[in-house]
Amino acid sequence: MRWIITALVVLGCLIGAYAWLGSDIPEREGKPMQGKVEKPESEWRAQLTPEQYRVAREKGTERAFTGAYWDTKTPGTYECICCGQPLFTSETKFDSGTGWPSFWQPVEENSVSLHSDNAWLMRRTEVVCSRCDAHLGHVFKDGPKPTGLRYCMNSAALKLVPKEGK
Ligand SMILES: [Zn+2]
Question: Is 83 in the active site?
Fold first, then answer.
């Protein structure tokens, strides 16, 4: 009998830890400044390269250290590859060592939406463009100050627009 109770306590702790780990980045719907953009998949496919389409419209992930922006330090604004909405700036980009462009904050709260993602038995929080629902990447809680967040993005979902001047 005792082993059953022990097993139940252990199981309870595991479930509790599992629920707790992914639960404190709440889901949130961003409200895009210029309204939603919706297009049939065929139009996105025509507009994007195959890699951009795979990442942004099919929730793909580019291989680490292969994207255009993981090591980029050029000042500027990162826009959504699909709809052009500004998403992140170089001022909140940091070197995470992961091989993906990482930011501690979006350009504006409303520029992204956060959805819980339980694929592959991992509790993660998916980050999408609030305007066109493009898959951008995931957000984790191991980022630097001041937010402590790490927005781990795919280069293929972003377009860097360099700042004018020097
Ligand atoms: Zn977008």
Answer: no
